[in-house]
């Protein structure tokens, strides 16, 4: 390394790496718990959205309160295999996306610790992060819609909340666009650094 190992910058990077590792463990634990909740002993416990909301009286604080429910958990043993696979995918896909983003962030920090800032590798890592965020959100929403369609069909109903589910996609889309803009800036910095080194 060009600088002392225990600089303030390296300490910050090590802290970020440690935070990323902790976040990865949390993602894995939460995913396992959600999968165990899905495959309950009584059947498949499917969580499905209720797009327009459903009015209900809920016993909150010991008293019935008029509420609007936008999600329900339905336990059934008669769901089709494709529906079960979709419900599981809606849990697994975001977990894989989170882990991949964390991996990219850790790799980026390691490159910075090695004195590599505006490099082709870092540019690719940032672009990969943007792509993972975008595709992870897209496939998660697709799996959620497929799972909801199958669950509603098993109940003899029709799910018409596709547009409401896709509303959750747009924040991820905007985030991906912002990260892609950072990647473009890194590519520009990489070229400027290469041109500067050529002048020395």
Describe the structure.
The chain has a three-stranded antiparallel β-sheet with strand order 1-2-3. It is elongated and about 65 Å long. The protein has helices spanning 8-38, 81-113, 120-154, 162-166, 169-199, and strands at residues 39-40, 43-60, 63-76. The protein has 200 residues and is α+β, with helices and mostly antiparallel strands. 68% of the residues lie in helices and 17% in strands. Strand 2 (43-60) and strand 3 form a beta hairpin. It has five helices and three strands.
Question: What's the topology here?
Answer:
Layout lengths: L7 H31 E2 L2 E18 L2 E14 L4 H33 L6 H35 L7 H5 L2 H31 L1
Antiparallel strand pairs: 1-2, 2-3
Q: Numbering strands along the chain, what is their spatial order in the largest sheet? A: 1-2-3
- Total strands: the figure is 3
* Fraction of helical residues: 55-70%
- Proportion of residues in extended strands: 15-25%
What is the distance, rounded to the nearest whole angstrom, between the alpha carbons of the first and last residues?
A: 21 Å
What structural class should be given to the helix and strand makeup?
alpha+beta
Could you state the oligomeric state of the chains shown?
single chain
**pLDDT averaged over residues:** 86
Largest sheet: 3 strands, antiparallel
Count of discrete alpha- or pi-helical segments spanning 4 or more residues: 5
* Rg of Cα set: 22 Å
Q: What is the succession of H and E elements?
A: HEEEHHHH
**Principal-axis shape:** elongated
Low-confidence stretches: none
Task: Characterize this entry briefly.
The chain has 200 residues and is an alpha+beta fold. Helices cover 68% and strands 17% of the residues.
């Amino acid at each position: 390394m060009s600088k002392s190992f225990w600089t303030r910058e390296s300490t910050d990077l090590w802290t970020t790496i440690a935070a990323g590792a902790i976040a990865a463990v949390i993602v894995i634990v939460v995913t396992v718990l959600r999968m165990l909740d899905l495959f309950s002993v009584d059947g498949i416990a499917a969580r499905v959205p209720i797009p327009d909301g459903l009015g209900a009286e809920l016993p909150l604080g010991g008293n019935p309160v008029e509420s609007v429910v936008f999600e329900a958990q339905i336990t059934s043993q008669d769901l089709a295999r494709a529906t079960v696979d979709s419900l599981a995918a809606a849990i697994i896909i975001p977990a894989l996306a989170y882990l991949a983003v964390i991996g990219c962030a850790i790799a980026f920090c390691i490159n910075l610790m090695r004195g590599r800032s505006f490099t082709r590798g870092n540019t690719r890592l940032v672009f990969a992060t943007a792509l993972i965020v975008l595709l992870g959100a897209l496939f998660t929403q697709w799996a959620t819609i497929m799972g909801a369609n199958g669950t509603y069909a098993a109940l003899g109903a029709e799910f018409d909340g596709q547009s409401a589910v896709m509303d959750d996609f747009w924040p991820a889309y905007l985030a991906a666009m912002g990260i892609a803009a950072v990647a473009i800036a890194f590519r520009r910095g990489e070229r400027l650094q290469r041109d500067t080194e050529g002048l020395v």
